[in-house]
Amino acid sequence: MSDAPINLETLRQRIDELDSDILRLISERAECARRVAEIKTQEDPQAVFYRPEREAQVLRRIMELNPGPLDGEEMARLFREIMSACLALEQPVKVAYLGPEGTFTQQAALKHFGESAVSLPMAAIDEVFREVEAGAVNYGVVPVENSTEGVINHTLDSFMDSGLSICGEVVLRIHHHLLVADTTRRDKVSRIYSHPQSFAQCRKWLDAHYPHAERVPVSSNAEAARLVKTEWHSAAIAGDMAAKLYDLTRIAEKIEDRPDNSTRFLIIGNQDVPMSGEDKTSIVVAMRNQPGALHDLLEPFHRHQIDLTRLETRPSRSGVWNYVFFIDFKGHHDEPRVSAVLEEVRLRAAEVKVLGSFPQGVL
Amino acid sequence: MSDAPINLETLRQRIDELDSDILRLISERAECARRVAEIKTQEDPQAVFYRPEREAQVLRRIMELNPGPLDGEEMARLFREIMSACLALEQPVKVAYLGPEGTFTQQAALKHFGESAVSLPMAAIDEVFREVEAGAVNYGVVPVENSTEGVINHTLDSFMDSGLSICGEVVLRIHHHLLVADTTRRDKVSRIYSHPQSFAQCRKWLDAHYPHAERVPVSSNAEAARLVKTEWHSAAIAGDMAAKLYDLTRIAEKIEDRPDNSTRFLIIGNQDVPMSGEDKTSIVVAMRNQPGALHDLLEPFHRHQIDLTRLETRPSRSGVWNYVFFIDFKGHHDEPRVSAVLEEVRLRAAEVKVLGSFPQGVL
Prior knowledge:
Chains A, B: Residues 2-94 form the Chorismate mutase domain. Two copies of one chain form a homodimer. The first copy, chain A, is built from twelve helices and 15 strands. Chain A is of the alpha/beta class. The longest helix of chain A is centred in the first third of the chain and has 36 residues, at 8-43. The two termini of chain A are 29 Å apart.
């Protein structure tokens, strides 16, 4: 926009032109997606049109190319919706999630599949698995770890009895800040409002930085933010949304004790997802109970320089072995070095099950 | 796409090209929106950038121009999100709504303002009004009528004590269908599953068409749909989502007793919204209690051929008059024939308050 128009009227006309062009291009994109679907159906009448690895690639590319001024995450969100709408035209993706509606799991499902997907709340994690297994839906969305409850064991356990694989992951990040009104001085804070759960999540930081401030629990972090607006000696612990809404100043950012204060969800399905270029693999390994078993298990990963991103130990439910390990690492099971490691792990373990390779969460 | 590419690879390349173009155009649109904001701020440092009438015009234009294959409503949804993202770049719209999260009111707020708006749940309708009046948020979203509770009197009453105006409306439509599995015959349905609320909403239709079928209440309409999947003599009352999800056949559509089974919400704010071309106006009128008062009140509307879309009577809370009427009609208070009618109404009534003129709900 070097020879940019300069008055409101010209700008609005330019916006109308741009909108017409965007409309035309999105429509052509939908037409292309329709033809892709036609060709795929000719090749295989049962073809699934949703391809997680392709979607991850498109979004990564968009974020790379994005020239601004919109930030990459926002632009990716718009493209997620465009892809979701194009896909729904031919074959709406059906998704079951752990309900009820309005929970973070629904938010994760919408974030991943876009608003055009058909989504339905289930009452329990098993039900989500069951609906996917029965073929009533294409995918399920279940929480796998969150900052308040830690790992959702029930989800991990469900995989042990299930033939489903992991097709993707979604991460919702949650940050807490210490917020004050403009007129408040950092050293004058004598009272802090927040929801009890947020106090728990920021306890260490508060003990270190505001050991003498009175902590007043309130019904929500939004309520906390509202209260400090008129109290010059008070602060609130709350997130970005409340800070923006009440124009509060952040005197400290990201004060949660665990830096990865986030909730992670898994997308489960029947699909073996091809490589996207940046993938993760989840496996579950049963070991015989003997000294050094875990060390033996992890050694091949170290030798092949494969990054472990997570390891959970769970008691086995069978008498044969004592523990099972849920391991997440970077890489796709079709990569030669990953399949080499899996081969070695199979020799050392009582049992190995690959839960799936999937694109690393894009946003 | 007359000289269309024919294989998957070419189609995917074309989609990538289209995505690059869409990305470029959305970015330029955001840049234009930023300049609009700059110019407005120079003219008035307190300027509000969100203009309901402009947004309604853009969406109507998009729906008119939309060539398919995406349907107009879906395309409008995408543009709503694009506009919401562009606006949030400069000045995120702040919205308070009647909570908790996950309710239809939140859905209405997101539908109207897009996902980039900053929105916060409030515990009561008064609180929504208070937050807007205090200037903590730009807009509030409150339900004004729904199919289960009828008119939300509390919302109407709040307007009597408030200086806020109505800046817009959002309608969420809710349809019920009678659904069966493929193998079920219409005349063999001996049992019907549904949520008790849906039974209530379809009672007359059921009495007329399936007087002898057993009605079995279940916890949700989704559950009802799931059950009939395997019962050849059963049907479920449920919505589009459940029909799609379980691939059920609609043996009867829109069986709700009231054809306008929907929930309507109002956007409240401080703004006087200019004409968008298709507008509605809400007024509240206090009449002295005398024979023929209502007829007198309505006569000027009839004479000027102004469409009334709604009329509600509420007992007055003051001793001076006995009733107040909430009237919605088509037109904008800046139109000459509307202001003529308002002039006449003012002569006949004890008091008239224009709650606002606003664009008719687009979707």
